[in-house]
User: Fold these one by one.
Assistant:
Number 1:
Amino acid sequence: MRAAVLHEIGQEKLEVLDDVEAVGFGPGKVRVRVRATGLCHSDLSAMSGVLPQPAPFVPGHEGAGEILEVGDGVRQLKPGDRVVLCWLPACGACPACRRGQTQLCLAGFMNAGTPNFRRSGGDLFGFAGTGTFAEEVVVDAGCAVPIPDDVPFDIAALIGCGVTTGLGAALNTADVAPGSSVAVIGCGGVGISAVQGARLKGAAEIVAVDPVASRRESALAFGATKAVAPEGLADAKQQVTGGEGFDYVFEVVGRSATARTAYDNTRRGGTLVVVGAGAMDDFLQLNMFELFFDEKRILPSMYGGGDVLRSYERTIALWRAGRVDLAGLITHRVPLAGINEALDQMRTGTALRTCIEI
């Protein structure tokens, strides 16, 4: 089968190969025919080494498809079922799951260290235990979440990561208050989803911040009340909040510099929500006095900060009701053979989300 492979960390291009095999099928596993997958910035971060991932590997973790085969003991799925792939499944038994914090379950991370692809040259890993830049993937049954027949594969793929992360940051983690002021720093697919989440919660002012003009224009179409380049944030803060700072600021880039900017633009007593996934050696510096004196809440948001399965259901319901626009997030489409074109679209910021049709 075909799959896009990164041979070494730090390479900028993927090689689409025809001799890759999805392996590991057995009890408790399912084989999935991937139909659509989104390109998330986390894939680029894994390729560059910002996020830890053993290589060689098949990137991709935001995917949807249909079940081809189920292993022994799998009763909730059958061949032909349409599914979204969940890269962070909850085991239901660990301390985090028992506390109701299923998004913090580490069981899914264990899969990332086990090869789930093979070719003549040796084993290949799947990013985040999945690897959706492939025609087929073998995953634990818990990673394959059934979806209704009316949800297209491309829409379902977005729900698998970016939309769930962005919406959840606003709805679950921040629980944005009606009438509040919000700034979202970084307006790709996840940031735009945070904008939509803040709009759903009734925020009065939503300022989108991004260096790319097309993304700023998109943010306005998705519910932002103002969109500025990073150098315009100070003026927006003054105009919208009288210089006090925003009630909520979402950092959706994953860098300490933008997190510091987000902190500085959050009002005293306000909330900074850290959504972007950054590097382990990139440190955010805060002095102890400001941390105490400003009383700003700093809330990291992992995968939307809530029960993932419930978040999927909620997103589908909101999409059906026309309350969130998911199709509009897909600004580009390419076949798997054009995956490097999709990488360029993400790096330059010309795409909110590129759908890779497989």
Note: DSSP finds twelve helices and 19 strands in the chain.
Number 2:
Amino acid sequence: MPSFRRRRLLVPALLCALAVLAARPHADAGGADGGTAAEVARLYADAAVATQQYEEGRREADTQRARAQRYEELLDRQRREIGVLHEDLGRIARAQYREGGGLPVAAQIVLAGSPEQLMRGQHVFSQANMAVDNAIGKSRRAQERLAADEAKAAAAWQELEKRNGELAELKQSIEHKLEEARARLQGEADASALAGSCRGVARLEQPPASYAQGWVAPVETYELSAGFGSGGERWANRHTGQDFAVPIGTPVRSVGEGRVVAVSCGGAFGIQIIIEHPGGYYTQYAHLASVAVDQGERVTAGQWIGQAGTTGNSTGPHLHFEVRVTPELGSGVDPVPWLAARGVTVGQP
């Protein structure tokens, strides 16, 4: 069946206490083994939370870089001011020496021509000493501020590097766990498709969402691959639906309210779901890795009905989505304009 163009999606990771806010699937009470499907869905939700945290960290890093740059500009200005103070100290010291300020008091008394001259010399000496003391104090305070600001800038960079390192480690950890869980989920799905018998319903706790317009895209984040009517050696005639390239385990949504008329495993479409909608149209969701609804159930727009996979005649992970006028293959219409007519624009995100 459908071919697709691979897309490696970014799965940034931050495994944290906020995971309790994410969707937590559980096995169906009927005894279906939804353990792996639940794990993948949980990790998928954790990754969504992690993405938000990671992006917030990146924005904070950008802010920190700007702050560090301002610190560096401040430090440069302080260094220049200290250089000027040092030059002033040098000029004062040289002037004091030229005016006799470097002579001992006894020598100044002996060399003074009159009491008035001695008093003027002492006044100049006192003024020069005061200027030197002020300059030294000002320089010392500037040096202390410079040292404090340098320490603050260094601490800020160290904190930023530490946080980025922790984010990188957590990202790598959750990616590894998610890939392992996806591989197990796909292995279980392949076994079900090969046997032609579905493992059962892996119920997914639904995310808090409402869709006022009544229609949504079948997956939230995707890349379009094979389109309706396209040719290829994998299809007997023409491609009968629209493919959405997504990773294994991606939640698949019902595009609108309706009733599940078929859930099946095996054959070219692998694990698939067909939903009947008001108005006489049917939608198909194929090559799944798990199902979260059962035949005869009512569904709402945006409800998670399963997880994407690569079962059946598929070259890789993606969702094959069809819109039909009957439940049967061969009655399909182009899904993209059909969704557009219902207010859903499907294209490259």
Note: Residues 1-33 have pLDDT under 50 and may be disordered.
